[in-house]
Protein backbone atom coordinates (compact mmCIF):
# COMPACT_ATOMS: atom_id res chain seq x y z
CA UNK A 1 0.00 0.00 0.00
CA UNK A 2 1.15 3.55 -0.82
CA UNK A 3 0.34 5.32 2.45
CA UNK A 4 0.82 8.84 1.11
CA UNK A 5 -1.42 8.17 -1.90
CA UNK A 6 -4.04 6.85 0.52
CA UNK A 7 -3.86 10.12 2.46
CA UNK A 8 -4.26 12.12 -0.77
CA UNK A 9 -7.34 10.05 -1.61
CA UNK A 10 -8.78 10.65 1.87
CA UNK A 11 -8.38 14.40 1.32
CA UNK A 12 -10.92 14.16 -1.50
CA UNK A 13 -13.59 12.76 0.83
CA UNK A 14 -12.76 15.37 3.49
CA UNK A 15 -13.02 18.21 0.96
CA UNK A 16 -16.43 16.93 -0.12
CA UNK A 17 -17.60 17.14 3.49
CA UNK A 18 -16.28 20.71 3.68
CA UNK A 19 -18.64 21.59 0.82
CA UNK A 20 -21.50 20.03 2.81
CA UNK A 21 -20.59 22.02 5.95
CA UNK A 22 -20.57 25.30 4.02
CA UNK A 23 -23.91 24.53 2.34
CA UNK A 24 -25.56 23.73 5.67
CA UNK A 25 -24.20 27.02 7.04
CA UNK A 26 -25.70 28.88 4.09
CA UNK A 27 -29.10 27.31 4.81
CA UNK A 28 -29.01 29.15 8.16
CA UNK A 29 -28.15 32.43 6.40
CA UNK A 30 -31.16 31.84 4.18
CA UNK A 31 -33.34 31.71 7.27
CA UNK A 32 -33.85 27.96 7.55
CA UNK A 33 -33.81 26.42 11.04
CA UNK A 34 -30.47 24.96 12.17
CA UNK A 35 -30.37 21.33 11.06
CA UNK A 36 -28.91 19.79 14.22
CA UNK A 37 -28.91 16.27 12.85
CA UNK A 38 -26.83 17.31 9.82
CA UNK A 39 -24.36 19.34 11.89
CA UNK A 40 -23.88 16.50 14.39
CA UNK A 41 -23.18 14.15 11.48
CA UNK A 42 -20.63 16.62 10.10
CA UNK A 43 -18.95 16.80 13.53
CA UNK A 44 -18.95 13.01 13.75
CA UNK A 45 -17.30 12.75 10.31
CA UNK A 46 -14.71 15.42 11.13
CA UNK A 47 -13.78 13.91 14.49
CA UNK A 48 -13.74 10.27 13.55
CA UNK A 49 -12.82 10.21 9.86
CA UNK A 50 -10.91 13.46 9.14
CA UNK A 51 -9.25 13.62 12.52
CA UNK A 52 -8.88 10.16 14.09
CA UNK A 53 -8.70 8.10 10.91
CA UNK A 54 -6.80 10.56 8.66
CA UNK A 55 -4.88 12.96 10.91
CA UNK A 56 -4.13 9.98 13.14
CA UNK A 57 -2.14 8.34 10.35
CA UNK A 58 -0.42 11.61 9.46
CA UNK A 59 0.64 12.29 13.03
CA UNK A 60 1.60 8.78 14.11
CA UNK A 61 3.13 7.36 10.92
CA UNK A 62 4.31 10.24 8.71
CA UNK A 63 4.89 13.53 10.53
CA UNK A 64 6.75 11.87 13.40
CA UNK A 65 9.21 10.39 10.89
CA UNK A 66 9.63 13.70 9.05
CA UNK A 67 10.54 15.33 12.38
CA UNK A 68 12.91 12.50 13.22
CA UNK A 69 14.70 12.21 9.86
CA UNK A 70 14.27 15.41 7.85
CA UNK A 71 15.86 18.09 9.99
CA UNK A 72 14.77 21.48 11.34
CA UNK A 73 12.90 22.62 8.19
CA UNK A 74 10.63 19.57 8.39
CA UNK A 75 10.22 19.97 12.13
CA UNK A 76 9.12 23.59 11.69
CA UNK A 77 6.78 22.73 8.83
CA UNK A 78 5.11 19.96 10.81
CA UNK A 79 5.05 21.39 14.32
CA UNK A 80 4.30 25.05 13.54
CA UNK A 81 2.12 24.31 10.55
CA UNK A 82 0.38 20.99 10.28
CA UNK A 83 0.02 20.07 13.95
CA UNK A 84 -1.11 23.59 14.94
CA UNK A 85 -3.76 23.43 12.21
CA UNK A 86 -4.96 19.98 13.33
CA UNK A 87 -5.42 21.45 16.81
CA UNK A 88 -7.17 24.56 15.53
CA UNK A 89 -9.56 22.32 13.62
CA UNK A 90 -10.37 20.46 16.85
CA UNK A 91 -11.09 23.79 18.54
CA UNK A 92 -13.49 24.83 15.75
CA UNK A 93 -15.39 21.54 16.15
CA UNK A 94 -15.64 22.04 19.91
CA UNK A 95 -16.88 25.63 19.44
CA UNK A 96 -19.33 24.45 16.77
CA UNK A 97 -20.71 21.84 19.13
CA UNK A 98 -21.03 24.44 21.92
CA UNK A 99 -22.79 26.88 19.59
CA UNK A 100 -25.28 24.22 18.45
CA UNK A 101 -26.16 23.58 22.08
CA UNK A 102 -26.64 27.32 22.71
CA UNK A 103 -29.00 27.63 19.74
CA UNK A 104 -30.91 24.58 21.02
CA UNK A 105 -31.19 26.31 24.39
CA UNK A 106 -32.80 29.33 22.77
CA UNK A 107 -29.82 31.58 22.06
CA UNK A 108 -30.65 32.77 18.55
CA UNK A 109 -27.48 34.88 18.25
CA UNK A 110 -25.34 31.73 18.64
CA UNK A 111 -26.35 30.86 15.06
CA UNK A 112 -23.53 33.16 13.96
CA UNK A 113 -21.10 31.03 16.01
CA UNK A 114 -22.40 27.91 14.27
CA UNK A 115 -21.75 29.52 10.90
CA UNK A 116 -18.44 31.11 11.91
CA UNK A 117 -16.92 27.88 13.21
CA UNK A 118 -18.24 25.64 10.45
CA UNK A 119 -17.02 28.00 7.73
CA UNK A 120 -13.71 28.74 9.46
CA UNK A 121 -13.10 25.00 9.67
CA UNK A 122 -13.78 24.55 5.96
CA UNK A 123 -11.37 27.39 5.07
CA UNK A 124 -8.70 26.06 7.44
CA UNK A 125 -8.92 22.49 6.18
CA UNK A 126 -9.08 23.39 2.49
CA UNK A 127 -5.85 25.37 2.81
CA UNK A 128 -4.30 22.71 5.06
CA UNK A 129 -5.06 19.93 2.56
CA UNK A 130 -3.70 21.98 -0.35
CA UNK A 131 -0.45 22.52 1.58
CA UNK A 132 -0.13 18.80 2.32
CA UNK A 133 -0.88 17.72 -1.24
CA UNK A 134 1.33 20.42 -2.78
CA UNK A 135 4.25 20.70 -0.36
CA UNK A 136 4.36 18.53 2.76
CA UNK A 137 3.77 15.09 1.26
CA UNK A 138 6.19 15.81 -1.61
CA UNK A 139 8.80 16.96 0.91
CA UNK A 140 8.38 13.62 2.70
CA UNK A 141 8.41 11.51 -0.48
CA UNK A 142 11.52 13.25 -1.82
CA UNK A 143 13.42 13.34 1.46
CA UNK A 144 12.67 10.16 3.39
CA UNK A 145 14.71 7.05 2.80
CA UNK A 146 12.78 4.38 0.83
CA UNK A 147 13.08 2.03 3.81
CA UNK A 148 11.26 4.60 5.96
CA UNK A 149 8.57 5.00 3.30
CA UNK A 150 8.15 1.22 3.40
CA UNK A 151 7.62 1.38 7.17
CA UNK A 152 4.95 4.06 6.68
CA UNK A 153 3.24 1.98 4.01
CA UNK A 154 3.22 -1.13 6.19
CA UNK A 155 1.78 0.75 9.18
CA UNK A 156 -0.89 2.35 6.99
CA UNK A 157 -1.87 -1.05 5.63
CA UNK A 158 -2.32 -2.55 9.10
CA UNK A 159 -4.23 0.53 10.29
CA UNK A 160 -6.56 0.41 7.26
CA UNK A 161 -7.30 -3.28 7.66
CA UNK A 162 -8.16 -2.77 11.30
CA UNK A 163 -10.43 0.18 10.40
CA UNK A 164 -12.08 -1.87 7.64
CA UNK A 165 -12.96 -4.57 10.14
CA UNK A 166 -14.68 -1.87 12.17
CA UNK A 167 -16.28 -0.54 8.94
CA UNK A 168 -14.92 2.95 9.59
CA UNK A 169 -14.33 3.88 5.95
CA UNK A 170 -17.65 2.39 4.81
CA UNK A 171 -19.60 4.18 7.53
CA UNK A 172 -18.16 7.63 6.93
CA UNK A 173 -18.23 7.54 3.15
CA UNK A 174 -21.89 6.49 3.37
CA UNK A 175 -22.55 9.35 5.79
CA UNK A 176 -20.90 11.80 3.37
CA UNK A 177 -23.00 10.52 0.47
CA UNK A 178 -26.16 10.67 2.55
CA UNK A 179 -25.55 14.35 3.38
CA UNK A 180 -24.54 15.25 -0.18
CA UNK A 181 -27.84 13.81 -1.39
CA UNK A 182 -29.71 16.34 0.77
CA UNK A 183 -28.04 19.42 -0.76
FE1 LIG B 1 -3.09 17.16 8.16
FE1 LIG C 1 -4.24 15.55 5.59
Can you tag this structure with a few keywords?
6 helices; single chain; 183 residues; elongated
| Small-molecule binders | fe (ii) ion
Q: Please, how many helices? A: 6
Count of DSSP E strands? 0
Structural class: mainly alpha
The ordered string of helix (H) and strand (E) elements is HHHHHH
Binned, the helix content reads over 70%
**Oligomeric status:** single chain
Strand content: under 5%
What characterizes the major β-sheet?
Answer: none
The poorly predicted ranges are none
Report the C-alpha radius of gyration, rounded.
18 Å
Shape: elongated
Q: Give the rounded overall mean pLDDT.
A: 98
Distance between the termini: 34 Å
Question: Short summary of the structure?
Answer:
With 183 residues, this protein is mainly α. It is built from six helices and no strands.
How is this structure best described in words?
By secondary structure, the chain is mostly helical. The protein has 6 helices and no strands. The longest helix has 34 residues, at 36-69. The radius of gyration is 18 Å and the shape is elongated. The two termini are 34 Å apart. The mean pLDDT is 98. Bound molecules: fe (ii) ion (FE2) (2 copies). The site of one fe (ii) ion has 6 residues, from helix 2, helix 3 and helix 4.
Amino acid sequence: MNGIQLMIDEHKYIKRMLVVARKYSYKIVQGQPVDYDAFYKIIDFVRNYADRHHHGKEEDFLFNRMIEHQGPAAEKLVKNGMLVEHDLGRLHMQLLEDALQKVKDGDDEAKIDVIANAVSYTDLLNRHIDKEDGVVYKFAENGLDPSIIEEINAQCETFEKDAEEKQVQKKYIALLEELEATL
